Amino acid sequence: MSGSGKSGPLAGAENVEKLRVYLDELRTKGVPLPMRGGEINRSAIALACGFNRQVLYVNEGAKALLDEAVAGAGLVVGLEQAEGDDDKPVTRSDKRDRRIHQLEQANASLRAENHGLRERLRRLEHVEAVMMAGRRVAP
């Protein structure tokens, strides 16, 4: 058992649910998935969800949910995106579009990090309230 006292399958199911809530929140706000270097930024997603990045590689439910979100967003992870446009000259507007895209991705990553930090702050404020009161306080 882990330090939180939850069994592996229970913790795994909770992680999948956290990821589902996070992806639904992004979808409703119209915010794209965080990207870094042309790929999904799994670290930012894990941070926003409040679990370890390895969950997105090991947990089959989380992996499938993320793959579904990537496919739904029309993203292709890896080098397949860059194929086919080698002969086309790069124009100034293409550079601007690329820069805008990079900035949007950085913004999405920072939003995900901000969401994770706000959630962590909320939990720590609750722990502090419990410690100060000396007894359990309702969240």
UniProtKB/TrEMBL annotation:
Residues 100-127 form a coiled coil. Keywords: Coiled coil. It comes from the Bacteria. This is Transposase.
